[in-house]
Amino acid sequence: MLRLIIQRSLLGLVVIWVVSILIFSATEILPGDVCRAVLGQGITEQNLASCRERLHLADPAVSRYIRWLNNLATGDLGVSLANDYEVSYLIGLRAANTLKLALLAAVIAVPLAIILGLIAAMNAETRLDRGISISTLCFISVPEFFVAVVLVYFLAIQFRILPATVNPRHLSDGTLIEVLRTLALPVVTLTMAVVAHMTRMTRTAILNVMSSPYIEQAVLKGASRRRIIVCHALPNALAPIVNVIALNLAYLVSGVVVVEAVFRIPGLGTLMVNSVAHQDIPTVQAIGMIFCTAYVGLNLVADVLAILSNPRLRHPR
Amino acid sequence: MIALWKRKGQSAVEEVPADPRAMPLTASAWIGLLIVLFWILIALLGPVIAPHLESDIITDVSFAPAGEVGLLGSDYLGRDVFSRVLYGARMTMGLALVTTLLSFSIGCILGFTAATCGRWVDGFMSRANDALMAFPSIILALIVMSSLGTSLVIMVVTVAIIDSTRVFRLSRALAMDISVMEFVDVARARGEGVWWIIRKEIFPNTLAPLSAEFGIRFTFAILFISALSFLGLGVQPPAADWGKMVAENLQGLLFGSAAALMPACAVASLTVGVNLIVDWFLRRIGGGAAEELLK
Fold this sequence. Notes:
Chain A is an all-alpha fold. Chain A contains 14 helices and no strands. The model of chain A has no long low-confidence stretch (mean pLDDT about 80). Chain B has a domain of about 210 residues: MetI-like (MetI-like fold, Orthogonal Bundle). Chain B contains 13 helices and no strands. Chains A and B meet through helix 1, helix 6, helix 7, helix 9 and helix 10 of A and helix 1, helix 4, helix 5, helix 9 and helix 10 of B.
C-alpha cells in the first residue's frame, strides 16, 4: 500500500512539473516576443531593450525555464509587468483572503453535501429524492454569478440582512463575526455550486454500492433500509465519497475566481483576472502555478485517501 | 458534469435504446424543452422583436426601473435592457454552439483515432490529454488568454480546446468498448481503413451517449463563456452577451436596479432547461441497477 501511495505522489509531482512546463510555454507561444506585446503603444527602443534585459529574452528558452522554475522553488516569483511590484508581495497581500473564502465554503459544504446525499440515497426514487435531484441539477446548471446576483438582490438590497460587497478592512483585521458577516454571501454562493455536485456524487456512490450482492443479502435477511445504508453501504461507499469531496474542493479553485470578481474581494482570483487584462505574464504564471498546484494536490489527496480507505489495499494478503 | 455519466455504468453500448422516439417525456423534461425552444426562438427572431438596437442609448437615466423606460428598464449607459437580453440570446447561444461544435469535432476525431490506432498513438494522446486536464479549466483559459490576447476568436478556440479534453476522454472510452467487438474485427479483416471504421462502425454506435454529452458540453460552454465574458474577457462592448451584461450592471444592483438580474436569469434558465432535457435523456438510456433493487 505504501508503495502505491508513493507511486501516486511521484505521479503528482510529475504532473505539477508538466503543468509548470505548459505554464512557462504560455509565454513562448506569443508571436513576436513578450515585451513587444506587453509594452504595446508606449514602446520605445529603450524600454524595449530594458524589458528584454529584465526577462532575459536573449537566453534560450530552456535556460530561462530552468531559471524560472528555480526562482519559483525559492519563492522568488519575479516582478509584475503592470506595476513593478514583486509578485510575491502582491500575492502575499491577497492569499489569506482567498484561503479564508475557500476554507469557509469547504467547512460548510462538505457535511451538508454528505447529509443531503445520504438522504437522497435513503429515499431513492421517491418525491424527496426527485426534489433533491432536480434542485441540485438546477444549482449545477446555473452560473455562479447568477446565484450571487440573486442573493445580493434579495438578501442585501431588498431585505438588507447582509452586506452586498466585501469590506476588505473587515476581511483582513476584523473580528471573527465581522469576517463571517462580510464573507457570508460569497461563501454561500460558492457553497451552493459545490454542494450540488457533491450531493449528486455522494448519492451515486452509495447507490452504486447498493447494487452489490451483499446488499441484496442484507435486504433478504430483512434489515431495515436505514440499517442497510448506514451499516452496510456507507462504509463501502466511503472511498468514492472521500474522492468526491477532494475533487469538489479542487473545483473551488475555479469557483473562487468568479465569486471574488462578483463581490470585489481582493484575492488571488481578482489579481489573476486583472493581470490577464494587463498581460502581466509573470503574475499570471505565478498565480496559475499556485492554483494548479492546489488543484493537483487535492486530486492527489483524493487518490491517496481512496487507497487508504480500501481495506484490501490497507491489509494486503 | 462528468458525474452524470457515472450513473449509467460501464459499457454504453448495450444501453442504446431501441427507438428513442418511444421515450415518454417527463414533466421536468417538458419544462426543459419549452425553455430551450423559447430561447432558440428568441435567438432566431430577437432582433426583429427588439424595440431598440443593442447599442442604442434610449434615455439619460442609467438604471431606470422596469416599466418606466422600456419593458425591463435601462442599463448603466441608458440602453434598453429588454432589447439587449433579446440580442444577447443570439450572441451567447451562438458562441456556445460554435464552441461546442468545435470541441466535439476535435474531441471525437482525436478520441476515435486514439482508440483505433493502437497503443502508442493512444498512450501519447491520452497522456497529452491528462496534462491538459490537470489544469482547472478557467485557470488554463486565463493563462492562455494572458499571452495570446483576449479577443473573441481566441476565447472561443481556447474554450473549445479545453472542452475537447472531456469529449476526448468520453469518445475514446466509448470507442474502446466498440473497437473490440466482432463487427469491427470483421471490418478490419475486410481491409477497411481506420477512417472508414471510425465513420461507419464506431460513430453510429456512440451516437446516443455522445448526444447526451453534447447537451452537457453545450451548457458547460455557455457557463464557461459567460463566466469569461463576465470577467471582462472575450466579448467586446457594445455587443450584448449575457455574462458581460451582468458584469456591466452589477453596480446598479446596489441602487436596487434589476438590470443585472435579467441577463443572469436568462443564462440560468437556458442552462437549467438544457440540463433538464439531458437528465431525462440520461435516465432513459441508462437504467441504474441500484435504483431497481430498493424500490
